[in-house]
Amino acid sequence: MNQTHIDFFTNLLGKDNAYFDKAHKIAYCYDATKKRYEPDGVLFPRDENDVSKILKYCNENGVIVIPRGAGSGFTGGALAANGGVVLAFEKHMNKILEIDLQNLVAVVQPGCINMDLQNAVEKLGLFYPPDPASQNYSTIGGNVSENAGGMRAAKYGITKDYVMALRAVLANGDIIKAGKRTIKDVAGYNIAGILIASEGTLGVITEITLKLIAKPKFKKTAMGVFKSVDDAMNAVYKTMSAGVTPVAMEFLDNLSIKAVEEKYHKGLPVDAGAILIADVDGNLELSLEQDLEIIQKVFKENGALDFVIAKDEEESANLWFARRNCSQAITCYGSLKLNEDITVPRSKLPKLLDKIKEISAKFGVTTPCFGHTGDGNVHTNVMVDKENEDEVKRGYEAIEEIFKATVELGGTLSGEHGIGLSKAPYMHLAFSDEEMALFANIKKAFDPNNILNPFKMGLK
Amino acid sequence: MNQTHIDFFTNLLGKDNAYFDKAHKIAYCYDATKKRYEPDGVLFPRDENDVSKILKYCNENGVIVIPRGAGSGFTGGALAANGGVVLAFEKHMNKILEIDLQNLVAVVQPGCINMDLQNAVEKLGLFYPPDPASQNYSTIGGNVSENAGGMRAAKYGITKDYVMALRAVLANGDIIKAGKRTIKDVAGYNIAGILIASEGTLGVITEITLKLIAKPKFKKTAMGVFKSVDDAMNAVYKTMSAGVTPVAMEFLDNLSIKAVEEKYHKGLPVDAGAILIADVDGNLELSLEQDLEIIQKVFKENGALDFVIAKDEEESANLWFARRNCSQAITCYGSLKLNEDITVPRSKLPKLLDKIKEISAKFGVTTPCFGHTGDGNVHTNVMVDKENEDEVKRGYEAIEEIFKATVELGGTLSGEHGIGLSKAPYMHLAFSDEEMALFANIKKAFDPNNILNPFKMGLK
């Protein structure tokens, strides 16, 4: 970063919004991966015009730009792996601009925190369903850029299902709008659709218009205990095809159950092969009861040893405790967690879990699994000792085979974490040369000088 | 079309699948616009490999390719306005390939007729919601290419909300897959998302994987009669913000009501300013009753003169009769119908309808309106005498002002018909030069030689 660049950014934004000191470089070098890359500077744009001027300058001068949310990503999407300036939105561009009660729409800036939006709309009787595990700190801009999912995806879908319109700045500084505050809009190419999940490689999102829905009045939680993973996985997809769509249908395998029990002593069934935790919701208690009856029937038909319905919110929180705490608890199995968010069609879950077991045995690694089975998304955690070089190597070999198995079963490398840096080496397992060439052409159409978060997602 | 091209296509596909005679050119020269353009040939690919070989050849030899569904489009998307070969899928690539009961997914070829799919899945207790008015003959390939909507969009969304994955052939003949049979998939750019609604300009879709849902067990219909359009439009968006999401909330204005009554004598309230017809559905009769109670309350609060709930399917069909037949009936107002599918945020409907009335008076034209107000989509029909040159001219001037008003209200030129040829002259009203330049860059990234349905959507 030469002095001319530093002067430009400082003049444009003021000293309080453009930082090139070591402390800021360290503060913005991380995300939820173990990787660290210091950027050359950290910029806090005050508005869309700042973003436009920054991008125009960077495009003309070959400065790399890394748009960044909360830095909570699991795949390095926000890391400045090739230097450049980080654009951070948490200081100025972090507001809820509007909640439109007439059209059930919210308009937010990219730095708005997911939970702040959820809280604001729920006070008004409305509901913004996407709830990534990072919801307390991750930003809507980051959620859109990675197309974040969450627990409630089984019924309510993911971030992309709620984005109605975007404003964005292109690499050359052009400000564009995409989409409308309408359910239907078929004029022009679906630019919003391709900006979502593009991990900051195609444009910088500056405003997001989101669909809201009415908040369901009632919610209930149930838990099923299964002898085997296989039984549980069969119960998942059979519940859905029986016509019930639970809000969430979450899963813990035996390793995850044991880890939670060991740490928290909650009286979990440590001999069970798996547990499933399901939430149902709606505006009529009767419809919830009907749903729970069907779930119980399907669970029993698929070998459930036990089935519990929470009587109140406290009991519900208790049932959810195991799921919410297993990510932490399973660190007992290894000091390095290689966690992947592979996703398969729900009916392939039994085969996928078999395959993971087989591959883990082959490479001598321990792989607790849990996650969002209601939408086919399994958090697969290969746990290794980070000091044991050979085990780490075997861990990565296992991961590669798990990816291969996932793709063979019609699944995807990533259900919700994105590709970023971490999964870039595996893109060839899922995409043909022709498909990768198309991605490269699209990247070039948006960003011919390759300044926007370059070399992510396996792009060259 | 020179003899070399004709020989290539004939050798590749056989004489039965490659036609260059006048009869075929005439048979494939039309769509639902009044425009006619004869293609240079009509090809019936037998499979994806045929499509790939055709496109590779056309790309290398500068032959234009027009993918075509049923030719039921309203904006000329399937017209060979610049010559070239039409790719028609109704002969071979028209099948339902799979209905996957475990994952609630259907896989179809592009030439599959929408209603054939609906019927097939409903027999199995499942439901494919997108129901464009052309559903009896339009194809899923066409529906995806135009991102078709329909009556049920207010609750169930539109075609894009059901497309999970596509296979497609790019201009250079490359065969690609995009998306997965999973709810979550965030690996790579959202290619399926940009192919949807791209009107055959970016690739030729060869296989479509669609999400299905469980068929709701109950449905009920209600009708509200309003003194004024304004009252009715207020009732629409207030119903939604009261937490009810009707399957459909359809609207007829006074001109439409009178036209239907004059033709069919059904006892409709010819003095009413507007009627609203609403369907609600669900798996519990109690929930439908609750929804109808709220709708009735909102309608009454907004000046409804009358509110009727259909007792059975026959009464429901009666209430729907007016809506289903108004497109035909309003031809009494003029021999040429300039019909547009503008869409605004629901809360802007009262203002939009006011504006349409004002503009119609200014230009001395009659403009009956009806349509899918539940999602903000109004079918606006400027009716003129096609022999009266001056009136036709005034009609088009009115259309342009209506488009301007729509965009000013935050709406879109097209809710479901697409841009094609007909709306291309108006793209500048809705999109900036920067946005049009981005569209052109994307087109070039997919189709550098501009062979795929060129010069549609306002592209140069």
UniProtKB/TrEMBL annotation, chains A, B:
PROSITE patterns named among the record's database cross-references: FAD_PCMH
Cofactor(s), names only, from the UniProt record: FAD
Location of the FAD-binding PCMH-type domain: 35-215
Catalytic activity, EC: 1.-.-.-
Keyword tags: FAD, Flavoprotein, Oxidoreductase
GO cellular component, as recorded: glycolate oxidase complex
Listed SUPFAM superfamilies: FAD-binding/transporter-associated domain-like, FAD-linked oxidases, C-terminal domain
Transmembrane feature ranges: none
Lineage: Bacteria, Pseudomonadati, Campylobacterota, Epsilonproteobacteria, Campylobacterales
Native organism: Campylobacter geochelonis
Family membership: Belongs to the FAD-binding oxidoreductase/transferase type 4 family.
Domain of life, source organism: Bacteria
Keyword Oxidoreductase: yes
Protein's name according to its UniProt entry: Glycolate oxidase subunit GlcD
GO molecular function: (S)-2-hydroxy-acid oxidase activity; FAD binding
